[in-house]
Amino acid sequence: MSARLDARVPDGPIADKWDRHKFEMKLVNPANKRKHTVLVVGSGLAGASAAASLAELGYQVKCFCFQDSPRRAHSIAAQGGINAAKNYQNDGDSIYRLFYDTVKGGDFRSREANVYRLAQMSLNIIDQCVAQGVPFAREYGGLLANRSFGGAQVSRTFYARGQTGQQLLLGAYQALERQVGLGRLTMFPRTEMLDLVVIDGRARGIVVRDLVTGAVTSHSADVVVLATGGYGNVFYLSTNARGSNCTAIWRAYKRGAGFANPCFTQIHPTCIPQSGEHQSKLTLMSESLRNDGRVWVPKSKGDARPPNQVPEAERDYYLERKYPSFGNLSPRDIASRAAKEVCDEGRGVGPGGRGVYLDFADAIKRLGEQTIRERYGNLFEMYERITDENPYRVPMRIYPAVHYTMGGLWVDYNLMSTIPGLHVAGEANFSDHGANRLGASALMQGLADGYFVIPYTVGDYIGSTKLERVDESHAAFKDVERGVAERTATLLAIDGTRTVDSFHRELGKVMWEYCGMARNEKGLTYALEKIPQIRDEFWRNVDVPGSAAELNQALEKAGRVADFLELGELICRDALERRESCGAHFREEFQTPDGEALRDDAHCAHVAVWQYRGEHQPPERLQEPLEFEHVHLSQRSYK
Amino acid sequence: MAGSQTQASLGVGPGSRLRLFWQSTVGKKIVMSVTGLIMVGFVILHMIGNLQIFESAARLNAYSHFLHHTINELLWLLRIVLLVSVVLHIVAAVQLARIDRAARPVPYRKRDRQAATIASRTMLYGGVAIALFVIFHLLHLTTGTIRPVAYTEGDVYANVVGGFRVWWVTLIYVLAMIALGLHIFHGAWSSIRTLGLSRPSAEPIRRPVATLVAALLWAGFSIVPLAVFFGWVR
Amino acid sequence: MKFTLHVWRQAGPMAVGGFATYEAADISGDMSFLEMMDAVNESLIERGEQPVAFDHDCREGICGMCGMMINGIAHGPMRATATCQLFMRHFRDGDTIYVEPWRARAFPVIKDLVVDRSAFDRVIAAGGFITAPTGGARDANTILVSKSDADDAMDAAACIGCGACVAACPNGSASLFAGAKIAHLGVLPQGQAERRQRVLRMIAQMDEEAFGGCTWHGECHEACPKAISLDVIARMNGDYIRALWATHEVNQEQGAG
Ligand SMILES: Cc1cc2nc3c(=O)[nH]c(=O)nc-3n(C[C@H](O)[C@H](O)[C@H](O)COP(=O)(O)OP(=O)(O)OC[C@H]3O[C@@H](n4cnc5c(N)ncnc54)[C@H](O)[C@@H]3O)c2cc1C
Ligand code: HEM
Ligand code: HEM
Ligand code: SF4
Ligand code: F3S
Ligand code: FES
User: Fold this and answer.
1) pTM for this entry
2) Nearest-angstrom CA–CA distance, A79 and A160
3) C26: left (phi over 0), alpha (psi -120 to 50) or beta
4) Residue A332 known to be catalytic
5) CB proximity A577 to C under 8 Å
6) Residue of A97, A332, A347, A573 marked catalytic
7) Is the separation of the CB atoms in C69 and C19 below 8 Å?
C-alpha cells in the first residue's frame, strides 16, 4: 500500500472499530472550539448536517453553496427513500445484513470498515431525523412505515412520499439555519469555491467567488470540509441538477488530493428518454415502477407501429427472457445495459430510437386502474406532464441515464483526503458504495458522514495537530486569488464563436458514447484523444459574454465545463486502466460467455487513486488494496 | 443578526406584549377581524330593526323609542363599543394597507389574477365608501343635519319614508349597500380565517356561509329604501 | 412554434430595468419554459448580446430555485406547476409572453429575472425548526405520529420555498410560506415544545423583512407549485393568538433564549 494512502482503519473486531476509535480520538476543549474555524463547502445532506453539527459543538463554522439558499442543494431531488437497519418490520434485517448487502451490492470494491460504520450509523440517522420533525410515512398505528427498495430482500427503506431527499434536507437545513440565527454559523449562499489553499501541506482555506458581485475573496480556516456532491454532469445530460459540478473536488485534486475510482459512475435504468437536442436534463422515474411494469421492445428492427398495435407475439420482453428469476426487477446496471443492447440492435422505440417500453397494461388488467393509480399516480402524472402521453393508455418510454457517481476524492477512515485538513463527505468522496450504489443508500451515507462522522474526526484532527495561525493576508491566499482571477479573465477574453453549452454537449456525447453503460479499449482510447481536442478548442473558441464583476451565469458555467473537460479525461483513463468489469463499470472485453460482468479479484481488488502531477504529465495511479474479511468475494448472479 | 434581534424583542413583559401584538401585521389583522365581526353583529341587528318598518310605523317608532329611552345607557355603551371598533378597524386597515403597498414597490407590467375577487381587491375602497356613507347616514337619520325632506325628531318612520322618496338618497343607500355586501362577502369569510377558527377544507376558496350572510344583509338593507321609493311602503 | 417574449432586463440591483423583446423561434412543444429560455439565451450569445439571467437548478420542480412571472401568473398558467415543469405545448403558437421577475420589496432584483430570496432563510432561522441537536435523539419509534397527522405535516412540508406565493400575493405577503412551515412542525408531537415561540418569532421576522400582511386574496395558493392550502395561514393565526394568550410562555422565553 502506498504510504500516501493509509486508510487508518482502527484495529479490533469490525463491530467495535468505530466505538474504539471514538474513544481514542483527541477531544478539543469546549472553550477552545470557538477559536477554530471550519469551512464546509456544500449544503446538501452531507454539508448541511456537518455544518449544523459542528456549529452545535461550538466551532466557528462557515458554510458555502452556489444556490441562493442552502435548502436547494441537489439532495433535495432524491425521491425514493433512505435505508436503515432498524429491523422495525422484524424481517431479519440487522446492521450486519445492511453492511453485507452494501459491500456485495458495491461488487466488492469498497472498504469493509467504512461500510460497517455506515450501517451502524443508519440507526442514529432515523432517530435524528424524526426528532427534527422529518415527516416520514407512518402506519395507521403511528409507527414508522417501511418499504423494500431496489431489489432488497428486507423492508428497510424509510420514506416521505416521493420527497424523501427534500424532507431530510429540510431537516438538516433547519438545523443549520438555527445555528445561523444563534450567530454560530455564517452561511454564504451564491458563493462558489474556485480553489483550495494549501499551506505547509495542510488545507488552510478556500478562495471563492461571490456570484452576485463577482468579488473573489479568501477564507482561512483550520479545516476544510468538501461536501459538494457528485460529478454526473460530466455527461451533460444526467438526472443531476443543472448546477451540480466537479469544480471544488477537481481544484482539490489539482492541489494534491487523490481522486479515487473516477470511472465508477452509475446509470439509472428508468428515466424519461431524451426528446430532442434542446433537452437540458433527464428526469428520473422511480425504480418502484418496475415492480408492476413490464419492459419490452418490438422483436423486429425498425418497427414503427404504435405500441398498442404490436401483437403480443412480436414483442420481446427481454429482461424476463434473459433473467428469468429477477426479470423486470434485475439490478440497475443489468437493466440499463440490456436496454442499451436492444437499442443498439435498432429495436429501440420513440424519437431517436433510444427508449424501451415500460408497459402497465397487464398490471392494469390484473389489478385495475385504481390500484395502479394509488401506487404510482404522482409518477404517472409527472410522466404525462413531461411527455404529454398518458401512461394508463400508452406504455411509458424509458431509457437509462447517468444518476450517481461512486467515485470521488479518496478519503481515509476519518473521511480525510490525502491533503491533511481536507475532509470530504457525501457523494463528493469515493464513498462506501464501491463500484455500484444500492438504492436509498446515498442519503444514508451523506447524513452518516455529516451528522455522525465528520464532527468527531474534525475534532480529532484539530486536537491532534499543531496548527499555525494563518489568515487571509498570507501570501498563499493572494497567490491563489490571483490565479483564480487570471483564469476568469482568460475565459472572458477568448471571445470565440461557440457557447459554453455547445462544448458541454459535445463532451457529454463523447462520455456517454464511449464511457457510458459499456466501455471498451478502443472507445476509451478514442475518447482520450477526442477530449483533449474539445478542451483545446474550448480554450481557443469559447464565447463567454459579460464581465467578471457581476452576476454572470455564462461565466459560472464556463468554469465548471472547463473542469469537466479535464475530469472527463481522467474518468476515461481510469476506465481504461481498470481491466475488469465490476458493478457499474462494464468493460466489454471482460464478460462471461453469456454477457455478465467479469470481475478480476486477483488484479483489481483495489481502489484506484489518481494523483495529479502537473499540467503536462499524466497523473499517477496509486492503489489502495481492499481486503474482505467478512463478506466473501463471490460473483453476482441474477439469472 | 436579524434572528437574534427578534429573539430579544420577544422576551419582554406583558405590557409590551400588547405593543408587540399591535406592531405585527398578524396582530393588526386580528384586531380588524374582531372589530369587523362586532360591526357585522351590529349591522345584522340593525337590519332586523329596520325591517320592522314593514310591520307598521308605530312598531318602528316604538322600537326607536325603546332604544333611545328605555335602554339609553346600554345604547351608549353600544355606541362606544361601536365607535372604538370603527376607529380601530380603520386605523388598522389604513396601516396595513400601507404596509401591503410598500411590500410591492414595483408593480407588474402584466397581471392575471387567479383567485382574488372584486370584493377582496376593493376592501379598502369599499370600507372608505362605507365610512362616508355612515357619516352621511348619521347626518341624515340620527342628527337630522342633512334634510332631503323635513326632519321630525323622534318620528323615525316619517324621516325614513320621507328621505327615500328622494331619488338620490335612495341611490346613495343602494350603492352603499352594494359596497357593504361586497365588504362582508369577503370580510365574513376572511375574518374567521384570520382568527384561525376555520376548519381545514379541501377547497379553501369556497365560502357559502359568507355569501349567504352578505346576500341577506344586502337584501335586507336594500329592500327598505327600494320599497319606499317604489311605493310599497307608504 | 414561435413566440414573442417581452422579458424584463435589469443589469444590476441598482440599475434601471426595462422590457426587451425577443423572438423565440423553432420552439418545440416538448421544451420546458426554461429550455425555451435556454434557446433564447444561446441565440443571444451568438448574436453577441448578454443572455437573460434566471435562477434554476433541479429542473424537476423540487429545489424551488426557478420562478418567473409568466404573463402575469407566477410560474405560468399551469396550476401546481413550477416554471421548470411548464412545457411550451401549453402555449399557442405565436403567443406573446411577458416574463417578469418576482416583485416584492423583500425580494430585491439582483439581475434580470434573478431575485434575492434570502429573507425566507432568515424567517426560518428565526424559528422554523425543531431544536434537536445532533446525537441526543431517542429511538424513532418511541414517538408515535398518527397517519393523518403525518399526512398533514407532509402536505405542508412539501413547500419548496420558491417564493411564488409572495410574488403572486397582491400584498407581497409571505404568509403561505411561513404558515406552511409552522403547520408542518406544529402538527407533529416533536414540534409542540417550541410551537408558541416559533410562531411569534417567525411572524416578527416576516414583518421585519417587509413582507405584507395577508388579506386573504388566495392568489398564493393558486400560484403555489405544491398547492399548499390556505388553511396553513389560518392555522398560523390561530397559533399566534394562542401564543400571545399564554403570558408566562412569552416571559419564560427570555430565560430560554
Ligand atoms: C434524481 C435523483 C434521485 C435520487 N434518489 C435517491 C434516493 O432515493 N435515495 C438515495 O439514497 N439517494 C438518491 N439519490 C442520490 C442522492 O440524492 C445524492 O447522492 C446525495 O443527495 C448527495 O448529497 P451531497 O450532500 O453529497 O451533495 P449535494 O446534495 O449534491 O450538495 C452539493 C452541495 O455542494 C454545493 N457546491 C457544489 N459545488 C460547489 C462549489 N464549487 N462551491 C460552493 N458550493 C458548491 C452545492 O451548492 C450544494 O449545496 C438521488 C439522486 C438523484 C439525482
Ligand atoms: C338602508 C338601510 C338602512 C336604514 C333604513 C337605516 C336606518 C337607520 C335609522 C332610521 C337610524 C336612526 C335610528 C334611531 O335614531 O332610532 C339609523 C341609525 C344608524 N345606522 Fe342605519 N340604516 C341603514 C343602514 C345602515 C348601515 C349599512 C349602517 C352601517 C354600516 C348603519 C349604521 C347606523 C348607525 C351607526 C346608526 C346610529 C345608531 C346610534 O344611534 O347610535 N345603518 N339607521
Ligand atoms: C368604516 C370603514 C371601513 C373601512 C375603511 C374598512 C376597511 C377594511 C379593510 C381594508 C379590511 C381588510 C381587507 C381584507 O381583509 O381583505 C377590512 C376587513 C374587514 N371589514 Fe372592514 N372596513 C370598514 C367598515 C367595515 C364595516 C362597517 C364592517 C362590518 C359591517 C366591516 C367588516 C369587516 C370584516 C369582517 C373584515 C375582515 C377582517 C378579517 O379578514 O380579519 N368593515 N375592512
Ligand atoms: S408556499 Fe408554495 S409558493 Fe410559497 S414558497 Fe412554498 S412552494 Fe413556493
Ligand atoms: S395571496 Fe396574499 S393575501 Fe393572503 S391568502 Fe395569499 S397571502
Ligand atoms: S429548477 Fe428546481 S424547482 Fe424549478
Assistant:
1) 0.96
2) 8
3) left
4) yes
5) no
6) A332
7) no
